[in-house]
Design a protein that fits this description.
The chain is mainly beta. It has no helices and ten strands. 0% of the residues lie in helices and 60% in strands.
């Protein structure tokens, strides 16, 4: 199978246990990650370790096109408070690590992606995970 594997982020610990119950936090991991022009995109998130009681974490990708003439955001679907990612994988209390979170596929993305992590706090307990993510891109 031809194509490329792009590391979105290496293994990294995310601990958001401090969040208030029911709160949501969005962290941008890459503001504009250039991706090659392929047709097929596969997002895989590895869960190396986790301690999630009832909250969730989601790795979300948004299509974006930065401009050198204007610092504003030109991102599709990234308009608080409503978010509509091009691709998203959610990690919850279901399953145990090590785990490949249910991968998703898409087509015709790019030329840049905004990579964010969205956390939704549990009513009680920890919200901790060690994650890494890749994007596999290939021709049809």
């Amino acid at each position: 199978m031809s194509g490329r594997i792009i590391t979105l982020f290496p293994k990294r610990a995310f601990d958001y246990s401090f969040m208030a119950a029911g709160a949501t936090q969005v962290v941008t991991l890459h503001r504009s990650l250039r991706i090659p022009p392929f047709f097929y995109y596969w997002l895989g998130v590895r869960v190396h370790n986790k301690d999630i009681v009832s909250g969730s974490m989601a790795v979300e990708l948004y299509q974006t096109l930065p401009s050198s003439q204007d610092p504003q955001e030109f991102t599709v679907g990234y308009a608080p408070p409503t978010y509509t990612p091009a691709m998203a994988v959610t990690i919850s209390s279901t399953g145990s690590a090590p785990l490949l979170a249910t991968p998703v596929t898409s087509s015709n993305l790019g030329p840049y992606l905004r990579v964010v992590l969205r956390m939704t706090a549990p009513t009680s307990g920890r919200l901790y995970a060690e994650l890494s993510a890749v994007l596999h891109v290939r021709a049809p």
